[in-house]
Design brief:
The protein is α+β, with helices and mostly antiparallel strands. The chain has two domains: 144 residues, Roll (2,3-Dihydroxybiphenyl 1,2-Dioxygenase, domain 1); 197 residues, 2,3-Dihydroxybiphenyl 1,2-Dioxygenase, domain 1 (Roll), CATH 3.10.180. 24% of the residues lie in helices and 35% in strands. The strands form two sheets. Strands 6-7-8-5-1-4-3-2-9 form a nine-stranded mixed sheet. It has an eight-stranded mixed sheet with strand order 11-12-13-10-14-17-16-15. The radius of gyration is 20 Å and the shape is globular. The structure holds fe (ii) ion. The site of fe (ii) ion has 6 residues, from strand 10 and strand 14.
């Protein structure tokens, strides 16, 4: 029997880079509201002339917030077109050069060739390929790098005292693509990156009275990286995916799902710090126990915070979506706590999507 080796072994999500209009202020938001700690900075003071980047960390979760300093830069064009959003989902690898060669050989469009940067703390090798829209995957090879983030960045601490809210790591990252494009991108992840198709949701699973979407989830060999890909489906009214695409001006990252060990604590803290979440009607909780069976959490506490529950064959999960984190109705976060469940909350899709539609209607986009 032929044993296939994984041509693209991934050790996890290295970081997510956001292009934002004002990284200094965005860094303050992620520190104060989401409890991240500022750990590193790059900009003119570190020899990077055209941008400023702030690196924020909480457990294994690392965000890089980048603002261009000149209107001519690629980042400025990105923000002009898309608004604030995810530029890069960076993946942690043992060999950035091989990751680049293996994926480009299979049809990936190169973003940049492998290169190595070094300082007194060691070296990091980077390479990049394009995925949907203007989004990139960057392969990060750390070579046991000992510094705060990577060469060209200096360690930076903030004067403000931050309190973590229990965010642990990226559970999954969801992409929205244009009508008819989902299978093309699923094929890209299968053929170019060696991912496997995990789950398919059709519009029967996901449609509400008004709007619909289709979704397929792909995952890498060890399951550390999971990318659901959504496309709009025809409904009576405008799909939420279409609204995203209209405002993001193309395909892009719809949500980043972040894992926690204690969703009641995490969401309670986030609410106290002013983060807005989608609201489901109280009736959602009336038959919760009959739908999902016994759970460890107090239903009243979940109801108060609007946390949703779903069960699959392996266990259950608790989840909630924030409202969009920008003024454009584009990127949002999901907070998720898995108690055995390996799925994505199919049982909650209807309630969540109806909630999204109420928000869409308020914006005049339904
Ligand atoms: Fe999700």
């Amino acid at each position: 029997m032929e044993v296939k080796t994984d041509f693209l072994p991934l050790k996890g999500t290295d970081h997510i880079e956001f292009y934002v209009g004002n990284a200094k202020q965005a860094a303050y938001f992620y520190q104060s509201a989401f409890g991240f700690e500022l750990v590193a900075y790059a900009g003119p003071e570190t020899g990077v002339k055209d941008r400023a980047s702030y690196v924020l960390q909480q457990e294994k979760l690392r965000f890089v917030l980048t603002t261009p300093l000149y209107p001519e830069s690629e980042a400025a064009a990105h923000i002009h077109k898309h608004g604030d959003g995810v530029k890069t989902i960076a993946l942690w690898v043992d060999d950035a050069k091989k990751s680049f060669e293996e994926t480009v050989k299979r049809g990936a469009k190169p973003a940049f060739e492998p290169y190595t940067i070094s300082d007194a703390d060691g070296s990091v090798t980077l390479s990049g390929i394009h995925t949907y829209g203007d989004t990139l995957h960057v392969f990060v090879e750390r070579n046991a790098y000992k510094g705060a983030f990577m060469p060209n960045f200096k360690p930076m601490k903030s004067g403000m005292k931050t309190t973590p809210v229990g965010l642990k790591y990226v559970d999954h990252c969801v992409g929205n693509v244009e009508l008819g494009e989902m299978n093309k991108w699923v094929k890209f992840y299968e053929e170019v990156m060696g991912f496997k198709l995990l789950i398919t949701f059709d519009d029967e699973d996901i449609s509400t009275e008004y709007s619909a979407l289709m979704s397929k989830v792909v995952s890498n060999g060890n399951g550390y990286i999971k990318f659901p890909i959504n496309e709009p489906a025809k409904g009576k009214k405008k799909s939420q995916i279409e609204e995203y695409i209209d405002f993001y001006r193309g395909a892009g990252v719809q949500h980043v799902a972040i894992a926690t060990d204690n969703i009641i604590h995490t969401v309670g803290e986030l609410r106290n710090r002013g983060i807005d979440f989608l609201v489901v009607p109280d009736t959602y909780y009336e038959d919760l126990k009959t739908r999902v069976g016994a759970i460890d959490e107090d239903v009243e506490a979940l109801k108060k915070l609007n946390v949703l529950v779903d069960r699959d064959d392996e266990g259950y999960l608790l989840q909630i979506f924030t409202k969009p984190l920008e003024d454009r109705p584009t990127l949002f976060f999901e907070i998720i706590q898995r108690k055995g469940a390996v799925s994505f909350g199919k049982g909650n899709f209807k309630a969540l999507f109806e909630s999204i539609e109420r928000e869409q209607a308020l914006r005049g986009n339904l």
